[in-house]
Design a protein that fits this description.
By secondary structure, the chain is of the alpha+beta class. The chain has 2 domains: 30 residues; 207 residues, no CATH class. Strand 3 and strand 4 form a beta hairpin. The relative contact order is 0.15.
Length: 288
């Protein structure tokens, strides 16, 4: 896919929510037709076939238990399908906890604590993602975008973290994840996520020019893309933003790296992602 932005190109239409498909009705049965009486030989053969069939079925079931590969647990069922609607069925404090503890998440394995400033209204992706990032995520669609902004304990750094709930199945999410990895799309500055500034807070001046470090992670076990972008709380502009992986590298000496903004972006994104995974597991285990 060509990700070169086109001059004057209209932004993609925001994603819309499609309610889950109704359950498939239970199968109906018809009256069985009478069959002729079987000979003893045919009866014996049928019995042998039944025994062999039960053995094969039992082996298949045992194999699915051991490998976890069951038709009832395919990519579009269980936690996968349920997590697609988590943006409106799960309390906001579960998706974006008021406080995130980052034990060992800072530079030199120092501890971090982030406090949520505000949560953005859920909406389509066009308002929250740069057009080129929106285009890169186009193959999986946008069900809904949710975002929140956090600040560190010193209120010197701010980070916007978000989740794109996609319309894709497991195969499409795996394909997108592979593409982001092989083409290093998460490291491209022109695919950097947008911030969510909040007036009268530490993130009041947190705009596009204040973006310093970012991360984008395509999940494959749930239909979600998690991203974050960090910057200074004092509103200073950043001429050369760095992806979190580069800013966190040993020996990195840029202002972004020395301020720990790569660790901020990665640490907040990781904790929100963990909360999402826990939520998905709880949804799958919840009795009907």
């Amino acid at each position: 896919m060509d990700l070169t932005p086109r001059p004057g190109a209209a932004p993609a239409r925001p994603g819309t929510y499609h309610p889950p498909y109704p359950e498939t009705p239970a199968e109906t049965t018809t009256r069985l037709r009478p069959v002729p009486a079987r000979s003893p030989a045919r009866t014996a053969a049928a019995a042998v076939c039944a025994v062999l069939g039960l053995g094969l079925i039992g082996g298949a079931i045992t194999g699915s238990w051991l490998t976890g590969d069951s038709a009832a647990e395919s990519g579009d069922t269980g936690a996968y399908t349920l997590s697609r609607s988590a943006w409106h069925s799960v309390p906001v404090d579960d998706l974006f906890p008021p406080t995130l503890k980052g034990d060992g998440a800072g530079p030199g394995a120092t501890d971090r604590v982030w406090t949520r400033i505000a949560v953005a209204p859920d909406g389509g992706c066009a308002a929250g993602l740069d057009p080129l990032l929106l285009k890169a995520l186009g193959p999986v669609g946008c069900e809904r975008l949710v975002r929140a902004t956090y600040t560190d304990a010193t209120r010197s750094n701010v980070t916007t973290v978000g989740m794109v709930f996609t319309e894709a199945d497991a195969e499409a999410m795996k394909a997108l994840g592979t593409r982001f990895t092989t083409q290093h799309l998460a490291d491209r500055a022109d695919l950097m996520p947008r911030t969510y500034p909040v007036a009268s807070t530490a993130a009041g001046a947190f705009g596009d020019r204040q973006r310093a470090s970012w991360t984008v992670h395509v999940l494959t076990e749930v239909p979600v893309v998690v991203f974050s972008v960090s910057g200074f709380a004092d509103g200073r502009t950043v001429a050369e933003p760095q992806p979190a992986a580069e800013a966190m590298a040993d020996g990195a000496t840029t202002a972004v790296a020395q301020a720990g903004l790569g660790h901020e972006a990665k640490g907040v994104a990781d904790r929100v992602e963990r909360a999402l995974r826990r939520t998905a597991t709880e949804l799958a285990e919840k009795p009907e």
